Automatic annotation (TrEMBL):
Signal peptide positions on this chain: none
Cellular localisation: Membrane
A cellular component annotation (GO) from this entry: proton-transporting ATP synthase complex
Alphabetical UniProt keywords: ATP synthesis, ATP-binding, CF(1), Ion transport, Membrane, Nucleotide-binding, Translocase, Transport
Tree of life domain: Bacteria
A single MF term (Gene Ontology): ATP binding
Record family assignment: Belongs to the ATPase alpha/beta chains family.
Name of the protein in question: F0F1 ATP synthase subunit beta
Keyword match Membrane: yes
Amino acid sequence: MEDLRLNVSLLRKRVPNLTSAAKSIGLRPATVSNLCTGKIPIGRAEVRTLAALASLAQCSLDELILKGEAFEMIETKIKTLDLFAPIVKGGTIGLVARPGMGQLVVLSELFFRLKKEGYLSFVLQPEAEGYPGLEDLNEHVDVIVTSIADALKKISELGKDRDIIFAADRSHVLTGEIFELQEKLQDEAIRTVTTFLLDLKGEAVDEELPYGPLETVWNFDADLAARFRFPAVNPISSTSSILEGAYLDQSHITVKQRAQKLLRRYRELRSLVNVKGIAGIPDAEMQTYHRGERLEAYLTQPFYVAEAFTGQKGVDVELKETIEDVRKIIDGAYDSKEPAELSFVGKL
């Protein structure tokens, strides 16, 4: 079947408050979100759902559904992100987290890493002040802007020869300013702008579609953060449209799906252990539990921006190495290793 995906940028432009609009015509916001990220393939979507979205956007189905357009992935060399929810170059990424889960540290690390790849970073400062960690983020930013007009001017000036990564708080999403900026930038002769939307207040966790349609969603996990399993990005619920079509090597998609299946069952078994202890796990499931432990440990990673606090040197892991390591863990090649031996390391 021909690769199909929603025209997310058109939806953002035409229907800025997609959550309310979807509910008003009987669509579940979660369904719309999953269609935007590709978690629900277009080929499996109900015709009435697509027709309803086209009606909201006041466009034809041909305009709403893009055919055969390839994505380009930005490889971060951060294991969890690249394997489970890669960045779509030129797309919009939403970070869903409460304060203290590490979203600003992840963003700081991304800016640090992508600067070495030639990207120019921008941050639109929130109107309110006093957010812990924001100053640390700004240390790794090339350009700090204080208004949408300022952002448009400087991105237009500096984005002609360099790819841009741009971050803004959800407060600017709720006003519609971010989507207006993205629309205006389409008329400028610039390269690509990859946008990161975060929620400094931590309210996005309680919303079904907190940022509107997105190419990538990173859901941060309270349990991982509480157990210091950083980066605390949930590998099961985080997703990216780049993985839901024939855009990447099939081995990547296969290993990602196998890893999610293992981690999903491991989390169920952890719940049993928390109540009954290790003896509560059936013998037939013991191998699954221990391999899940090892995989969860492996997905932790030392960050460059945190070296002064952790005493551990940051590491890069190529995507192909992550895929191979995860495959070996799932297949039992590291069954002799303790989870602690796989925690906060690079490639195996």
